[in-house]
Amino acid sequence: MLVLFVSVKESYLLFHTLVELFSVTVAFAVFIVTWNSRKILDNNYLFLVGIAYLFIGILDILHALTYKGMNIINSTAFYANQFWIATRFLESITLLVGFWFLKRKQRLNADYIFLIYLFISGLLVLSILYWKNFPVCYIEGIGQTAFKIYSEYIIIIILMMACFTLVRRKKYFDPKVFYLLFASLAFSILSEFCFTLYITNDGILNQIGHYGKLISFFLIYKANVETSFLNPTGILFKGLKDKEESYRTLAENLPELIIRLDKNFRCIYTNNALSKFTKLNSQHFLGKALFAMGLPNYFEQALMETLLSAQRDKSLKETKLDIVLDHKSYFFAIQIVPEYLSDNEIETYLIICYDITQLKNTENHLQEINATKDKFFSIIAHDLKNPFNALIGFSELIYKNTEKYSTERIQQLALRMNTSAKQAFNLLENLLSWSRIQTGNLVPKIQTLHAVDILTETHQLFLASADAKNITINLNYRELIYVNADRQMLNTVLRNLITNAIKFTHPNGKIELKLDVKNQEVLFSITDNGIGIEKAYVDEIFKIENRYSKPGTADEKGTGLGLILAKEFIELHQGKIWVKSEINQGTTFYFTLPGFAADKS
Fold first, then answer.
1. Cα–Cα distance between 477 and 184 in angstroms, integer?
2. Coil/strand/helix, residue 352
3. Are strands 510-518 and 472-476 parallel, antiparallel or unpaired?
């Protein structure tokens, strides 16, 4: 700065030339650093500005060479003023437009940018020196033209917009670089403001304006060149730091447990998912050996065995771990990856523990569905065969022996055919209802029903079959009990349970149908004094995969689906069903449905 101050005393032309040469040197330096770091520079703003400064520097050279007194290009026109305006427009627009590319994740194409600025700069040079259609900016004896002054104000507005945008995009820059860029823009605005006021090219305001430009370029130098060398992580690798931070944040919040151990099995990193196994903060584990981390024994043992295997074989190892936490079962898949940071020598181990509980539960559910499907087809294949065999056999006997058999014999065969047909129909009806439940196509139509009426109707329906075995069916209830249920489904449940009670009760036995209300639920119970159910089967009678069926006391046949269907219907109503039974003492089936007892008053 002292040299410039002395030079202006001697010759303004010398001062102007030194200022421009320094500015051009800075501009070229910015370009050289940017161009050579273009493959690693992640900040698109600095990338674009750095390439543009090559052409800003070239135009500034032409501004210096055409300055009055240089006598390199002789002309009455003041080309220097025209080159100044052209260069400042190119510079200010670049400083503003560059922010538009800042958010783009894809790196800009350096070759395209170079060619675009080469084309624009060429047009400006031709417009001033060859075509001579660039507006006049200075007139001898008069001073600056209106175009020159208004252009300076437009450039100031563009630079102010760049300042505002820089503040809004502050997070994309290292703090030091941000302040340097902001200060550079501020001095550029000051410089341009001075250039709106001067009258002569060697006046004091013109001189101050050049000082402002000098400081502005020096700050650009600090931001784009010196900072890039002294603090590369602040410029060249700012994007890389941001990505590292985002990846670290991602790893910290992943549901999968991630641990990195050194070659001595000491923890060098763990994410927050470790809190699933221990309540300690992840920082607590850093530097500690695996056996000293305080992990649950089963987890520590599984990790150690797999780590030793990975260390021995120098290859990726996997294992699975089933654990119980807070009375819930969890399933984990553990993967240990040896990491090589030198030739054939393991430096670290990456442990990833995946929570596959949902996947395991889904797998188990699919297995249950497959087992149910297989059982379903087994029922169809086995149980439908018997009644149809009977139908085929009896019908064949009738049509072959119509003339030989008596009317009484034909009636007997027809009765057996009718019984077989009913058995097949009941089986198909139950299978159809059950399959509709499994596919979600059967939805209960809930309505408020008088429970006593439903029970009485069902009782009347079974009087004939009960009389056939001389079985008494008693009703036990209070009058005003209401149940919220689907009428057809409730009738099906009662029919299946009462059919079973009659089927497994000896002649001259007793059955009791009872209603009660407890905690806003209607409790139904069907009790018989029949043969009872073996304890081994009490918990299996509601499972299709363990379908329970046995002949009745009069050798009645069943499908084994009645109880399963009853359970499905009850659960569709958010109710419960269970059984109590003693061999040769009898059985009681209970089920509940939403309901209430009305006040008699």
1. 94
2. strand
3. parallel
Burial of 481: CB neighbours in 10 Å, binned 0-12, 13-18, 19+ = buried
Element (H, E) at 499: helix 487-503
Phi, psi of 340 (to 5 degrees): -100, 115
Q: Cα separation of 84 and 134, whole Å?
A: 12
Strand-pairing partners, residue 483, are 449, 595
Instruction: Retrieve residue 508's tokens.
Output: 């001259």
Q: Cβ distance 485 to 444 under 8 Å?
A: yes
| Choice among 226-240, 258-272, 427-441 with the minimum mean pLDDT | 226-240
Among 489, 386, 379, 396, residue whose Cα is nearest residue 443: 489
Q: How far is CA 553 from the centre of its chain?
A: 60
Q: Which residue has the higher pLDDT, 11 or 88?
A: 88
What is the SS3 assignment for 125? helix
* Amino acid identity at 477: Y
d(CA 303, CA 353): 10
Instruction: Say how far apart CA 129 and CA 410 lie, in whole Å.
Output: 123
C-beta separation of 82 from 151 below 8 A: no
Residue 349 dihedral angles phi and psi, to the nearest 5° = -125, 125
Q: Helix (H, G, I), strand (E, B), or coil: what is residue 169?
A: coil
495 Cα distance to chain centroid: 49
Residues in Cβ contact with 378 at an 8 Å cutoff, skipping those fewer than 6 apart: none
Q: Where are the alpha helices (DSSP H) in 37-109?
A: 44-65, 79-97
- Determine the Cα–Cα distance for residues 409 and 415; give it in Å rounded to an integer: 10
Query: What is d(CA 494, CA 430) in angstroms, rounded to the nearest whole number?
Result: 14
Residue 228 has pLDDT above 60, yes or no: no
In contact, 174 and 235? CB cutoff 8 Å:
yes
- Rg of the chain over all Cα atoms, to the nearest angstrom: 47
In the block, tokens 């500005």 appear at 49
Our CA dihedral for 154, 156, 158, 161, rounded to 10 degrees, sits at: -140
> Of the candidates 269, 277, 270, which has an alpha carbon nearest to the alpha carbon of residue 298?
277
Contact between 486 and 573 under an 8 Å Cβ cutoff? The reply is: yes
Give which of 221, 87, 109 is closest to 155, Cα–Cα: 87
Percent of the chain with pLDDT over 70: 82
HEC assignment per residue over 460-477: HHCHHHHHHCCCEEEEEC
More confident residue, 431 or 237: 431
**Which pTM does this prediction carry?**
0.44
- Alpha-carbon torsion angle 547, 553, 558, 562, nearest 10: -70
In the structure encoding, which two tokens stand for residue 10, read together?
């001697």
* Backbone φ, ψ for residue 463 (5° rounding): -60, -40
- Encode burial over 220-234: b for 16+ CB neighbours within 10 A, e otherwise: bbbbbbebbeeeeeb
Which residues have CB under 8 Å from 495's CB, separation 6+?
Answer: 458, 461, 462
Query: pLDDT, tens digit, for every residue of 331-354?
Result: 888 889 888 876 667 788 888 888
- Look up tokens 């047009």; give the residue: 123
